[in-house]
Write a structure and sequence with these properties.
The complex is a heterodimer of chains A (about 550) and B (about 150). Chain A is an alpha/beta fold and about 550 residues long. Chain A is built from 13 helices and 17 strands. Chain B is mainly alpha-helical. Classes of the chains: A alpha/beta (about 550), B mainly alpha (about 150).
């Protein structure tokens, strides 16, 4: 094994959203930062979005599910016991390469689920404590949105103005107003105006296939250039096999594999931001005499409580030409009408809905029709194909219903006993069954979404899915104050290893009913700030 | 338009002739749109689609090799091997939907996604009649916590 000579002040494992936030902050604060990333930099000209066949490429080579994509920089995931498909992207930028850039803060009630609803657990921090960090990362990531949303406490004022809600947003807003239901222009981590290094969004509408113009605020575009400019060192194709400990039980670095060669990167502090599947996988791989069940796992909760957002979708057809070829693909509008708990509905917690342009995925029309509820039995092929497409393209509005998902220890990430990655390291195995509360929540909200379509004037509306893969991986290194019932504290600091931090979606105590990137980034910013401020008192491993 | 992704494998003319029959059964045309063969789905466009999804070559070749009339083969696949039918129909539809004439007829602004940055006041134009006012006037809807109460 070769040892890198430079001891990092901070070693960050994973160059995704959370790793980018932490690397930027700590490098700018003068720390010697090393980042290890198992994937490569993405050449924007390699992204499929400017090709006519972008949707075909997105169904394989650029698919969010690593089992389908199958790159050697990915690791396989055994999903034989999961009803949910999962995904992530492994490369500089992580899953932000393929995210749609929905930028959704969690709401105050998300952090107090036990107090308010008597289920799951409260988070160890509050919305109010996280607000300054949301604001900071919203500036870094060029978040665009409208101020004054009554679904949030006063003061939520994104740094850039909202994108146009476009024809689809306008049409649905009129329907929601008839019902007296909440809606708001969408929030997107895509600049609506030129911002820092990024140009104004040019609305290609294919954000989830990667932005070939480098405008979307993926971590490789919006965060890592700053980190590198301040001296951070980013090592790609470096797959971490183990986080190591010194004789005192402090993390002192990581062993990684690059082109078959093992290296050791020593570090004073180690941060893991490898997503809600990769992080527990790495901790579980990092066994030692001190931690025979996996690093920082005295609680037994590393990998447990896996949550995702098995979201529902519904579509409506409209006579008007809605011109929904325009991006961004994140959110045109959103609705929080059914976000907060109403016990009379037969479940707790709720859902954010949002609209994205359906026309950007014409091949997606196949499943919308042939797998849809009430349309699956209608003929789609043959003479019907062209009329179905003509009726749909530019005339369809699609709701995405993002459900809160509550933690259950029977849903978990573990190491697969057989499957390995290309370096021979154990693959991850996910076990996930959708909880009854989540199922009821999705069903209720989908019914309401059909009412919204009717109010907006849809000539036909139907549910297209009740279990879409969200690619949101959460909950597997729960944060909390009690070391017996959590893996890390409110700063992401491992209870068992005081110089080991977790900063990704693993931290989530509950899933929240919104896309998680905003909260992941805010938590990472808070942890990085804590590390920088408390460096003098920090126990170090190397 | 971007350079097609290259696929070393090539269908024979006999395979293309048979694929054309399958493709027209799946996409017969109408509503102002052409049938699959009218836009050469079994020619250059299936090549281009398979260039993006080379993993589906085996599916296409396998379906074409199924014995029987194409209509019967498709019916049998739908009934007995729906995943295989879906994969075959998906790549045929993919070849059709990337054709620039089809995209134009469906209303797409270009052969591939094209830039269309918003005008400076475009966002306001959708809201200028006060459509958002009623939402604001209803007041806060978030649920108070001990911290916010």
């Amino acid at each position: 094994m070769k040892t890198n000579n430079d001891v990092a002040d901070v070693l960050i494992i994973g160059a995704g959203a959370s790793g980018g936030v932490a690397a930027k902050h700590l490098a700018e604060e003068g720390f010697k930062v090393v980042v290890l990333e198992q994937g490569d930099w993405i050449n924007q000209s390699d992204l499929p979005g400017l090709r006519p066949e972008y949707e075909l490429l997105g169904s394989k080579a650029w698919h969010p599910n690593p089992n389908i994509r199958g790159n050697d920089t990915d690791y396989p995931i055994d999903l034989s016991e999961s009803v949910a498909q999962v995904g992530m992207f492994n490369g500089v930028g992580g899953s932000t390469i393929l995210y749609a850039s929905c930028w959704c803060r969690a709401k105050p009630s998300d952090f107090r689920v036990r107090t308010l609803d008597g289920v799951a657990d409260d988070w160890p921090i509050s919305y109010e404590e996280l607000v300054p960090y949301y604001e900071a990362v919203e500036r870094d990531l060029g978040v665009s949105g409208a101020a004054g949303n009554p679904a949030y406490p006063a003061g939520y004022n994104p740094p850039l103005p909202a994108h146009p809600i476009n024809g689809v947003g306008r049409k649905m807003a009129e329907g929601l107003n008839k019902l007296g239901w909440h809606w708001w222009p969408g929030y997107n981590s895509i600049p609506s105006q030129a911002h820092r290094r990024q140009k104004q969004c040019d609305r290609l509408g294919i954000c989830m296939y990667g932005c070939p113009h480098g405008i979307k605020s993926s971590a490789d575009v919006a965060l890592f250039p700053d980190a590198l400019a301040h001296g951070a060192k980013l090592i790609t194709r470096a797959r971490v096999a183990e986080i190591t400990l010194n004789e005192k039980g402090l993390a002192n670095g990581a062993v990684y594999i690059q082109e078959g060669q093992q290296y050791f990167q020593p570090a004073k502090v180690v941060i893991v931001g490898a997503n809600g599947i990769g992080t527990p996988r790495l901790l579980l791989m990092s066994k030692s005499n001190r931690f025979p069940d996996g690093l920082a796992n005295s609680s037994g909760l590393v990998g447990k409580r896996f949550m995702t957002h098995p979201f529902g979708t519904s579509v409506g057809l409209y006579e008007d030409d809605l011109g929904d070829f325009l991006g961004p693909a994140g959110e045109a509008i959103e609705s929080m009408q059914f976000y907060e708990t109403d016990a009379s509905r037969g479940f707790v917690r709720g859902s954010k809905w949002h609209i994205i342009p359906a026309a950007a995925r014409p091949l997606g029309m196949i499943n919308r029709w042939t797998k849809g509820e009430g349309t699956a039995d209608e003929e789609f092929w043959g003479e019907q194909f062209t009329s179905r497409m003509k009726d749909s393209i530019g005339h369809m509005i699609e709701w995405m219903v993002m459900p809160d998902d509550l933690p259950e220890e029977t849903n978990y990430v573990t190491l697969d006993p057989v499957l390995t990655d290309s370096d021979g390291l154990p693959a991850a195995k996910v076990r996930y069954v959708t909880g009854e509360n989540t199922r009821r929540l999705v069903d209720f909200n989908l019914e309401r979404s059909l009412e919204a379509h009717a109010a907006a004037g849809a000539t036909k509306a139907w549910v297209t899915s009740r279990n879409n893969p969200s690619w949101h991986n959460m909950g597997t290194c729960k944060m909390g104050d009690d070391p017996a019932t959590s893996v890390v504290n409110g700063y992401g600091q491992a209870h068992d290893v005081p110089n080991l931090y977790v900063i990704d979606g693993s931290l989530f105590v509950t899933a929240t009913g919104v896309n998680p990137t905003a909260t992941i980034c805010a938590l990472a910013k808070r942890t990085a700030t804590y590390i920088a401020k408390n460096a003098r008192n920090q126990e170090v491993g190397a | 338009m971007s350079t097609p992704l290259q696929l070393e494998f090539r269908l024979s003319q006999a395979q293309r002739d048979r694929l054309a029959v399958f493709a027209d059964l799946l996409i017969s045309g109408g509503a102002g749109l052409p049938a699959a063969t009218e836009v050469d789905v079994a020619g250059a466009w299936i090549d281009r689609a398979l260039g993006a999804r080379p993993d589906l070559v085996e599916t296409v070749v396998g379906v074409l090799a199924e014995e029987g009339e194409p209509a019967e083969v498709l019916a049998r696949l739908r009934a007995q091997e729906p995943e295989r039918f879906d994969a075959f129909a998906f790549i045929v539809a993919g070849a059709y939907l990337i054709h620039p004439r089809v995209r134009k007829l469906l209303g797409y602004p270009g052969g591939a996604p094209e830039p269309s940055p918003a005008f400076p006041d475009e966002a306001d134009a959708y809201l200028e009649d006060g459509i958002l006012d009623v939402v604001i006037e209803r007041g806060p809807t978030y649920r108070p916590t001990p911290q916010t109460a």
